[in-house]
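Private note to self, pasted from the team thread so I don't lose it. Backbone tokens:
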């Protein structure tokens, strides 16, 4: 199945990304919420900056911290808290590494055994959007890596 990643700017402070994955929502949700699985697909391999650590307390009010880099001394982190966790259909979290970080909502919709995934980011202002977005270039690669992982997880299920 060819699954193009669609990226659309829907307003001056919103970005919406969609993609269909050939796996049921419960397995795709698991890949987004299990640290050991997230480490296998989240960092695009082409940038050469691995995900060093992945701490996730995936519950409403819980937090996360993802550290990237070659070692702890040169690492940079993304962190925030989960505002909503509804397995296996919805995740909402803050991005607190920047003062004007986005709120990200990810939905996992069952479509005949596959998952239609929507990532929606909303920034507090147009200026914050302009300063904060840009990582979407790596999404197609990340999602291809997620496809690889999901194929293995589906085969085991």
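Design output:
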């Amino acid at each position: 199945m060819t699954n193009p990643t669609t990226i659309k700017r829907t307003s001056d402070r919103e970005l919406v990304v969609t993609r269909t994955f050939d796996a049921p929502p419960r397995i795709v949700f698991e890949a987004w919420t299990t640290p050991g699985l997230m480490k296998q697909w989240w960092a695009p391999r082409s940038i050469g900056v691995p995900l060093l650590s992945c701490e996730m307390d995936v519950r409403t009010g819980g937090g996360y911290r993802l550290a990237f880099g070659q070692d702890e001394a040169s690492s940079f982190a993304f962190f925030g808290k989960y505002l909503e966790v509804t397995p296996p259909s919805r995740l909402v979290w803050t991005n607190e590494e920047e003062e004007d970080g986005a709120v990200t909502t990810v939905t996992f919709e069952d479509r005949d055994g596959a998952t239609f995934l929507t990532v929606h980011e909303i920034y507090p202002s147009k200026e914050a959007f302009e300063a904060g977005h840009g990582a979407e270039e790596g999404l197609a690669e990340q999602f291809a890596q997620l496809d690889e992982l999901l194929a293995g997880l589906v085969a085991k299920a």
